[in-house]
């Protein structure tokens, strides 16, 4: 399996390129509009055929590059079921498995950051957690129908029940981390270690974080697959 972690320094966002090296079929997860040229160039250099642009959720902190990537590669854009993204080519449900070549990508509903969030388990070993679980943290739950209780349930009952060796690749990192494991996060993630469900809800309710810089433009733009007038 080819697996590449790509970073956008302006929004601290990770995108992921996954491909079957035998067939050349590929998927790009959580693309960033400003990085479309970089990502398409990499796909072309590696001789890959991009089948899917996947989104873990409707982002509030950056604009997706999915629409532009679709224009340039002919891929399909897939978003979680119940996401309000009419321009998507399809919706992916909890438990559904898509393939790029022989590489399976399984959707795992991880509601809480938003009400339509998915993690993706790639090849049974690499877990793309989006904004549900960060390395030593987690996404916020105070807008876009966020629900701290649902996030606690999703992380502790769905992600933390995967094998400890499962590699964790988050949607963002603000401290320079690139990868962790489920076992590490079960032992060291301060948002979850030592907190029960009610304590987690109370903790998340008192974070008092400022809104993301791009929230006013990002959500409506992402509901149009990033195809907005000001798009690059």
Give a summary of the structure in a few sentences.
The protein has 232 residues and is α/β, with parallel strands linked by helices.
Explain what this protein looks like in three dimensions.
- The chain is an alpha/beta fold.
- 23% of the residues lie in helices and 26% in strands.
- It has a six-stranded mixed β-sheet with strand order 1-2-3-4-5-6, covered by helices on one side. A six-stranded mixed β-sheet has the order 7-8-9-10-11-12.
- Helix 3 packs across helix 5.
- The mean pLDDT is 94.
Oligomer: single chain
Strand line-up across the major sheet: 1-2-3-4-5-6
Which strand-content bin applies to the residues?
A: 25-35%
- Helix/strand-derived class? alpha/beta
């Amino acid at each position: 399996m080819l697996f590449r972690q790509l970073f956008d320094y302006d929004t601290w966002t990770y995108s992921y390129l996954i491909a079957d090296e035998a067939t050349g079929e590929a998927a790009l997860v959580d693309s960033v509009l400003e990085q479309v040229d970089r990502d398409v160039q990499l796909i072309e250099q590696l001789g890959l055929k991009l089948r899917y642009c996947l989104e873990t959720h409707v982002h509030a902190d950056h604009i997706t590059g999915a629409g532009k990537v679709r224009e340039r590669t002919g891929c399909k854009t897939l978003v979680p079921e119940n996401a309000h993204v009419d321009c998507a080519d399809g919706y992916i449900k909890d438990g559904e498995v898509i393939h790029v070549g022989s590489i399976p990508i399984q959707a795992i509903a991880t509601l809480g950051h938003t009400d339509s969030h998915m993690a993706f388990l790639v090849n049974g070993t690499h877990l793309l957690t989006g904004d549900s679980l960060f390395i030593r943290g987690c996404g916020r739950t105070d807008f876009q129908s966020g629900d701290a209780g649902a996030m606690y349930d999703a992380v502790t009952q769905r992600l933390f029940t995967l094998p400890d060796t499962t590699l964790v690749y988050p949607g963002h990192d603000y401290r320079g981390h690139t990868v962790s494991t489920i076992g590490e996060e079960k032992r060291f993630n301060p948002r979850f270690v030592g907190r029960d469900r009610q304590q987690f809800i109370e903790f998340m309710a008192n974070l008092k974080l400022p809104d993301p810089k791009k929230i006013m433009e990002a959500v409506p733009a992402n509901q149009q697959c990033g195809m907005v007038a000001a798009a690059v």
